[in-house]
Prior knowledge:
Elements: E1 8-15, E2 19-20, E3 23-24, H1 25-35, E4 40-45, E5 48-50, E6 56-58, E7 69-76, H2 78-91, E8 96-98
Antiparallel strand pairs: 1-7, 1-8, 2-3, 4-7, 5-6
Amino acid sequence: MKIPSDGKLLRIFIGEADKWNGRPLYEEIVLLAKKNSMAGATVVKGFMGFGCKSHMHTTKLLRLSEDLPIIIEIVDSEEKINRFIPFLDEMVKEGLVTT
C-alpha cells in the first residue's frame, strides 16, 4: 500500500508488560492496525528507558528487565491515523501516543 506523500507517523510508547484483554498490548495494537488496514506498523523493543514515574527500565538490571520499553510506529494518511487514535485512547492506560 502506498501512502500519500503527506503521510503521518503515529508513535506509541508503552511497557512490555502492558496488557489488553490478557494479551500483550503491543500485539493487540498491531493486530488492530492490521484489521483497520493501516499502511504499516513496527514494534521496537528498547533496552533502556524510563517513563512518567521515573522508574529506570534496563536489560542491565535483572530485576527491572521484566518491563522494557516498547515503541510502536504506525504510518498512514493523517485521516486514517486520526480515526485510529480513539481506539488507542481506550487501550493505552499508561503510556504516550504521539503523531
